[in-house]
Design goal:
single chain, 321 residues, alpha/beta, D-Maltodextrin-Binding Protein, domain 2, 2 domains, five-stranded mixed β-sheet, 35% helix
Length: 321
């Protein structure tokens, strides 16, 4: 009789054969991750409030209809072009990844992009150009104007406010831990003497070892590499943002994300060129509408709740920048 570990590997191999049969061309995953260049500490943009999630208040009167976009606004220029250009991930399952059967990039972040496009054009269909980018590309492409927005699980912080602008927080993530079901690991302190994997160059393992000093650090090029090590029995746990871990758990029926308080706070915001404050206000009005009509909640329930197994609500916006 095969062990669960063997069954898991067979499931993974079978999945690859199914994808190959559908003609799916997977998004290339680099062997190693180059750490994102450090950004200088911010002075004025964040010290005035002490809260990096503070953004620009939506325009008075709420969200304008597509036919009533202010003349000369960033939104009107995007509409005249005919499509919204959004920088996204292409291989972050549940956030933004290519569906192997339809070829469509989908996920929670894509839902955010589609909502912004629909507010500009009346419908997102045919009016969104997704550009798959790396984490290091996010700020430079916004600054150069090559993309209008970035929805790529980007944490809002003061250093980034010094370079770009952010919408209000649209998802509150945090570092958690993924383990095998029935492993006996129920909390971070249980990782003492156990192996925990995180991408090289991140601070995730440092955070783990503060709570479990005897945990054994294991590194890989990225979280996909950690998942391979996990399935091959080379690590007992994987740590990272709960959104990323939810995607890994959804791909492995023997894995689960530990519930409980996150180790860090990672407020996600939609990135915008700092010169386009009108677009930031517009996006914030879109997020307000998503709160009112339940579309944010529906997106969370669809993409994340099955793996994270916890309820969540849309973050309360903080305005006044």
């Amino acid at each position: 009789m095969k062990t669960p570990r063997t069954l898991r590997l067979l499931i993974s191999a079978t999945s690859l054969l199914v994808l190959a049969g559908c003609g799916y061309s997977a998004t290339p995953v680099p062997e190693a991750v180059v750490p994102e260049p450090a950004t200088p500490a911010s002075s004025a943009p964040c010290t005035d409030t002490g809260n990096p999630t503070r953004s620009y208040k939506p325009v008075d009167g709420g969200l304008p209809a597509p036919g009533d976009l202010p003349a000369g606004s960033t939104m009107a220029k995007i509409k005249a072009r005919g499509h919204l250009v959004a920088g996204v991930s292409g291989d972050s399952y549940l956030l933004a990844s290519r569906n192997p059967f339809t070829g469509v990039v989908e996920g929670f972040d894509i839902d955010m992009v589609n909502q912004v496009a629909a507010a500009i054009f009346g419908t997102a269909e045919g009016h969104v150009q997704l550009r798959v980018i790396s984490a290091a590309d996010r700020i430079p492409l916004l600054q150069s104007g090559e993309v209008d927005i970035v929805a790529r699980n980007m944490t809002i912080n003061c250093a980034r406010w010094d370079q770009i602008a952010f919408s209000a927080e649209y998802f509150h993530s945090g570092q958690k831990v993924l383990v095998a079901k029935g492993s006996g690991i129920d909390k971070v302190s249980d990782l003492a003497g156990k192996r925990a994997c995180a991408p090289a160059g991140t601070t995730s393992l440092d955070n783990i070892q503060e709570l479990a000093p005897d945990a054994i650090p294991v590194t890989a090029g990225n979280h996909t590499g950690c998942l391979l090590k996990f399935q091959n029995g080379e690590t007992d746990a994987i740590t990272g943002d709960d959104t990323v871990l939810a995607g890994l758990a959804a791909q492995d029926p023997y894995a689960e994300v530990l519930t409980g308080e996150a180790l860090t706070d990672e407020p996600y915001g939609i990135g915008v060129n700092s010169d386009h404050v009108d677009l930031v206000r517009f996006i914030n009005a879109v997020l307000e509408r998503m709160r009112a009509d339940g579309s944010w909640q529906a997106s969370y329930t669809k993409w994340f709740k099955p793996s994270l197994k916890v309820d969540a609500t849309q973050p309360t916006p903080v305005y006044g920048r």
